[in-house]
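For the sake of transparency, this paper describes our internal protein records without simplification. The record that follows is passed on verbatim for readers who wish to inspect the format:
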Amino acid sequence: MTAAFERLYDPAWAASWDAVGLVCGDPGQPVRRILFAVDPVAEVVDEAVCIQADLVITHHPLLLRGVHSVAATTPKGRLVHRLIGSGTALYTAHTNADTAAPGVSDALAAAVGLTGGLRPLDPDPGDPEGRRGIGRIGTLPEPMTLRAFAEQAAAGLPATAAGVRVSGDLERPVRTVAVSGGAGDSLLGAARAAGVDVFLTSDLRHHPASEFAEHGDVALVDTAHWASEWPWLADGASRLASALGGRATNVDVRVSALVTDAWSQTFGAPDSTAP
């Protein structure tokens, strides 16, 4: 099962600092039900146990930094114990799924309305075909205002408490868009160099976004981190089912609809629908 998945999202494509692959579980155990989710958190493990999933595939790693103990005295240790105790394996596909083609940003681009002909925002130098890389650049079928695009993006992504934030003139016309699932302010320079009208990503920090906005040439759309990566789950699940071929008839592949964004509520925001 993991071998079929790794042919789609090769662990060798992951960043050097990343931790991808099988976190816990026996590679030889039979798999009848798989649950895809963004985050390996307690609620997702509860869901996996409830539906009797044999394997959970998450985008975010559980153990990214050095670990010296998985004792049940810590939240992550308790998750590991719960997974092992229930016979549920955990597998992570993080930056290898980000850079894959198609990958996380391809699914994000489709969700916010970009058309075909996508190309990497930050190409992977190790890919001679130039298809892999972080982020994607694409176009809208027709020009629209920044306001209309932000509304379209919000409608295409799962709802979160933080919603979608915008920097730029809401009435400016936009057509070319760069997207990057997850935290993307390291790609602000790449977005400007690409000459796009809008850069949509997540976790934009105040100072980089403020300095970027001073130029006034590229608008910013900031989404919730979880929301920008969630569209990939269905794509990853579908591609795995196709890769399994005839074996897929014996495997139930599901996508978690749990909202595991870190922010659960907002207060004091003005009415964003006002003109």
